[in-house]
């Protein structure tokens, strides 16, 4: 029994990041549905983002204070400015564009376009020389082709709607939305893609910040409070009527509490932990899971229109994404070999998704 228990614990520790990211995507799936219902009810997206991060900040604060009291690094002015920019990219600017686009597109479209974050992160990493690409190796070519294919999928979803799939039965939940807003598809697409670009920068930047401030709970707290202040400053300008800030005991309140506690609190902490353990690309590779779940739930539960262009584009995006991730994984395996055995070099003569073999050649000792 002891041996079996030890084996299960070993498996759990190995796949703990994978399990946590699956749970995070399940949390994001429900977020798409509850926020759409709240926005359809009349909730202002910018007010929602401000309240959401205020709630998240107060929820995470006591955990950050007591758990990381002895391990939390000193917060310098330079580090605070870094967190300020990090909050702008990951909270206020990005989410205000992202959720505003929900008024003009659909949850399925948003969940699909988010899959490009991994590709965009890869492109930025190459530009910043954080990622090496050797197009003469199959793994390098896979990363380049995967990026291009993924972006082609986004363009397909943005520019091509196609025919509408016939709804099966009656929707389980009815959400009344403005048809006029849904017609501004291009405007929503631009907002969504812009938010994905800033999100990609955020993923890269947080990996650096965690090296200087390795306290995930404290960093989550700071980002929520600073992001809430930034969002509030913007929201006061665009939503200055007191009635727009009022929240009743209805779907608006529940969406704020859910988003604040579960998403901006728990899930952001999970992503920071997984980023430190596995890197930013690992975190983004699970986005297609929420795409599938959102598409299924909105189609069957809400009776939302599902366009052929969205399906085709989503399939293209996912194929490109996993081609990119295969190339990335091959590079990481090579780095592990070089780190563990500095006395050898690895020459790949069979890089292929099917698992081709390579050769190990001894380096000459000086």
Automatic annotation (TrEMBL):
Give the main location: membrane
Location(s) in or outside the cell? Membrane
Where the record annotates domain EamA, the positions are 18-156, 187-325
What SUPFAM superfamilies does the database record attribute to this sequence?
Multidrug resistance efflux transporter EmrE
A cellular component term (GO) from this record? membrane
Q: Per the UniProt record, which residue ranges are transmembrane?
A: 20-43, 49-67, 79-102, 108-128, 140-160, 185-205, 217-239, 251-274, 281-300, 306-325
The membrane topology of this protein is: Multi-pass membrane protein
In the UniProt record, does the keyword Membrane occur? Answer: yes
GO function terms (MF aspect): transmembrane transporter activity
Matching InterPro entries, A to Z? EamA_dom, EmrE-like, WAT1-related
Keyword Kinase applies: no
Q: Which UniProt keywords apply?
A: Membrane, Transmembrane, Transmembrane helix
Family indicated by similarity: Belongs to the drug/metabolite transporter (DMT) superfamily. Plant drug/metabolite exporter (P-DME) (TC 2.A.7.4) family.
From the Swiss-Prot or TrEMBL record, give the protein name. Answer: WAT1-related protein
Q: Which organism does this sequence originate in?
A: Daucus carota subsp. sativus (Carrot)
User: Lineage of this protein's species?
Assistant: Eukaryota, Viridiplantae, Streptophyta, Embryophyta, Tracheophyta
């Amino acid at each position: 029994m002891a041996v079996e228990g030890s084996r299960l614990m070993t498996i759990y520790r190995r796949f703990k990041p994978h399990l946590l990211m699956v749970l995070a995507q399940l949390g994001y799936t429900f977020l798409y549905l509850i926020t759409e219902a709240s926005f359809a009810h009349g909730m202002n997206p910018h007010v929602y983002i401000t309240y959401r991060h205020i709630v998240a900040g107060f929820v995470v604060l006591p955990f950050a204070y007591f758990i990381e009291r002895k391990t939390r690094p000193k917060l310098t002015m330079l580090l605070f400015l870094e967190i300020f920019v990090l909050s702008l990219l990951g909270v206020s600017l990005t989410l205000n564009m992202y959720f505003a686009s929900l008024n003009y597109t659909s949850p399925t479209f948003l969940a699909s376009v988010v899959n490009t974050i991994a590709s965009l992160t890869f492109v930025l990493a190459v530009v910043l020389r954080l990622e090496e690409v050797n197009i003469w190796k199959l793994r390098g070519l896979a990363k380049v082709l995967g990026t291009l294919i993924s972006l082609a999928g986004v363009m397909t979803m943005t520019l091509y709607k196609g025919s509408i799939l016939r709804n099966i039965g009656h929707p389980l939940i009815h959400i009344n939305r403005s048809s006029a807003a849904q017609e501004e598809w291009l405007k929503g697409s631009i907002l969504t893609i812009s938010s994905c670009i800033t999100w990609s920068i955020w993923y890269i930047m947080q990996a650096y910040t965690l090296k200087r401030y390795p306290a995930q709970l404290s960093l989550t707290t700071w980002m929520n409070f600073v992001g809430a202040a930034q969002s509030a400053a913007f929201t006061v300008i665009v939503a200055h009527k007191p009635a727009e800030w009022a929240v009743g005991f209805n779907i608006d309140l529940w969406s704020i509490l859910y988003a604040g506690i579960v998403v901006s609190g728990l899930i952001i902490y999970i992503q920071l932990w997984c980023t430190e353990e596995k890197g930013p690309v690992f975190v983004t590779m699970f986005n297609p899971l929420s795409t599938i779940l959102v598409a299924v739930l909105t189609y069957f539960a809400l009776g939302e229109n599902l366009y052929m262009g969205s399906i085709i584009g989503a399939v293209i995006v996912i194929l490109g994404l996993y081609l990119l991730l295969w190339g990335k994984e091959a590079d990481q395996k090579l780095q592990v070999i070089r780190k563990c055995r500095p006395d050898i070099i690895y020459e790949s003569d069979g890089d292929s998704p099917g698992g081709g073999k390579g050769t190990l050649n001894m380096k000459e000792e000086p």
